[in-house]
Amino acid sequence: MTYYNEEETKKLKELPKYKNFKRWCNDNGIVNTGVDFPVAFGLKGELIGMAASKDIAPCEAFLYVPWEI
User: Fold this and answer.
1) Alpha helix (H) ranges present in 1-69?
2) How far is the C-alpha of 19 from the C-alpha of 51, rounded, in Å?
3) Residue of 40, 39, 27 lying closest to 66 (CA atoms)
4) Which of 13, 14, 55, 69 is the most buried (most CB within 10 A)?
């Protein structure tokens, strides 16, 4: 099991590059229901990725990126 690092995740969410990326996603119609980004994993937060924020059923879309993007 991978360790979810809550403290490092909070720090990541305050970084301008992730705030800007989230704004860009919202401005361009990207929908990410059911996932949280960025999330830090590992004891030192050394792995950055996405995490499910709810149960995701098989074949359920959790990330939508418009074709134009």
Assistant:
1) 6-14, 16-27
2) 17
3) 27
4) 13
